[in-house]
Write the structure tokens for this entry.
Amino acid sequence: MQNENPLNYVFIDEEKPVQYREIFEKYSYYWKWFALGIMLALATAFVYLRYTPLEYTVTSTILIEDETSGSLPSELSAFEDLGLTGGTKKKVETEIGLLKSRTLMERAVKALGITTTYTSKGRVREMELYKYTTPINIVFTLKDSLFYNVDTVFTVKAISKTDFILKNRDGVEEGKHSFGDAILTPFGTMSVILTGNKVLEIGDDIMVSIKPLKKVAMELSNNLKVELKFKNTGLIALSTNTIIKQKGEDVLNELVRQYNQDAIEGKSLIGRNTETFINDRMRVIQEDLFNADKGIEQFKTSNKLTDITSEATLTLESNSEIEKTILNLNTQIKLANYVIDYVAKNSKELIPANLGLSDETVNLNTQRYNELVLERARILKGSKSEHPIIINLDDQLSQLRRSITESLANFKSSLQISLRDAIKEEEKMSSKITSVPKQEREFRDIQRQQQIIETLYLYLLQKREENAIALAITAPNAKVIDRADAGSIPVSPKKTIVYLVALLLGGLVPFTILYIVFLFDNKVHTSKDVEAVVKAPIIGEIAHSKSDDKMIVSANDMDTISESFRMLRTNIYFMLSGTKTRSHTLFITSTMGGEGKTFISLNLARAIALSSKKVLLIGADIRKPKFNEYMGITINQGLTHFLADDSINITDVIQYYPEGDFDVLGSGIVPPNPSELLMNGRFEEVIAYGKANYDFVIADTAPIKMVTDTLLLSQYADLCLYAIRADVLDKRLLEIPEKMYSEKRLPNMAIALNDINIEKGGYGYGYGYGYGYGYGYGYGYGKEHQKKAWWKLFKK
């Protein structure tokens, strides 16, 4: 069962915030590289500023005139009320686009002749010459379209005051010529003329570069800025950056001049085309107007019309009268049918009178008939039906009924005839009424065409006069407010910014390199790296030893590494203070070979021996023993001999090591079956003998990752010291000691961090030893570090 670790309460795992001081100290160890990077960056910045040409900003301001504010409109304003010009004001954005156009820049470049540049070759850099600073000028006999597509470079080298040598792009001499002579080239005939502005010294090289027109114009356009100077104004600011002030000023001034010239030519062309258009249209419209008037005359004649509106009113009134007549006739027919039906069904009854029948004969007969019916009824009250008077009355009533019936039939026939005639008349009137809208529409169409043509004719007459006035005066679009002028302060390169960027890059580049190195660094460096994974207590941190000696600890040595072993010894005593046995067994192991467990075993045994303790050091790593190499002694028989031969006594294989003042049980020869030897029971006798005769038994065991020997022997240990070497062990392998500790496979396990680099600040993180923090060793005891002279700072 594993004993409770007394140091566990010291090493409590707590979540801690980011330690910026630790990060700073981690990088500050490499301050020499930061200093070197900054110095190199500043030196590079100085050279860059020394030989980089200065750039200046050339600016110019123009005013785009508002055409509506002047007394005279533009030619296009002749049609502005038709919406043909998109408004009465120029759009400043459009003018800005025109100023940025490649075509306009090409015309400016042509006018200035800057497709050809002259450069003077210096010792370090080349300097462009322009106008009054160039000693020569190249004159071409004919500049055609072929010339403006040429892309070539050649050099003129003066060999005397009258002669020069012409070199091609590659520096190969192509011939000797005199100034002013005609020289035939693939792109035309040229002459080299001395300008007299500057003396051309013998031996001077002037490089002449001819670029295509489009390329030069594109470069200048890309460098040109055109923007509105103030909101809601017509002020436009033009600016460009240039190395030669005069050249930049000439480009802007010529660009504005070309812009105004283009505007004037455009306005004149528009005016002339407008005048031609108006005259052509008026000739056509005159003929159309004559045809329209003739069409109205022919329409009225063919339709027998004078006034369509008055005739339509009369027709409507007549139709209304006919409709009334038809209604009255239908009423009379219905009444006649009613009376005929009544008379047929009621022979002795009164016939309805005053029904509104228009036939007087029917009305009189009806009235006579009703009188006789009443008379018969009166007489019949006092006599019988056979009375002669009654018989006479019946005959009269019968005759009248027949007469009424015939009259009604005749009346009905006459009404039907009249109704048919009225309906025909109504249809005739309806047809006439229906034709009126069509005639009206046709007439209106003809009349509308006449009015449109007449209005357009009058409109063109007006616009022709306006266009004639506008053509009399043509003004440029832009008014120059400020001519192009270059500032006295260069805009590029900016010294402050260059030095600041150099300073930042000088520090950033080393930082980035270190960050990448740290990012891909998987090695264990400090106790922090171990504590992040392994929860076992760290009881010792062994500083890096620059000595080739394996035995570092001595009685009178008080350097850092010796004191680290003494501190390790003290912590081991503290951890073993809870055990009741007089003798203690200490196993030292590691994850893999080369982590310094043998080095720790040897020096720890010496440190414990210095405290007046009897120590037995056992070389339990029988697969790859290093005792002979480390201690510089010859061990004839060792642990493997004892384990393999029962006749050998334990005292026969133990020998005294005077340099360390402790006894040693060497590993012996490498056996073919190391695991079986360790399990045969003889190793228990070694431990029993050690505990009986020594205060401390220290066993240097095999690495955990490689073999299982240490796990087979761990039951005999009072404390297992797990060695982890800084800058060697991969962090991913820390899961092995963590597993050993969490699963309690090694009793009373503690960690010793070996080979710590004190100068990097990786020492003393676990529990505040203070190595490398301004106190601890070197403050009252130990060796002080001597300060280096400044010229040795970059020496490790």
About this structure: The longest strand covers residues 56-64. The chain has a mean pLDDT of 81. The chain has 20 helices and 21 strands.
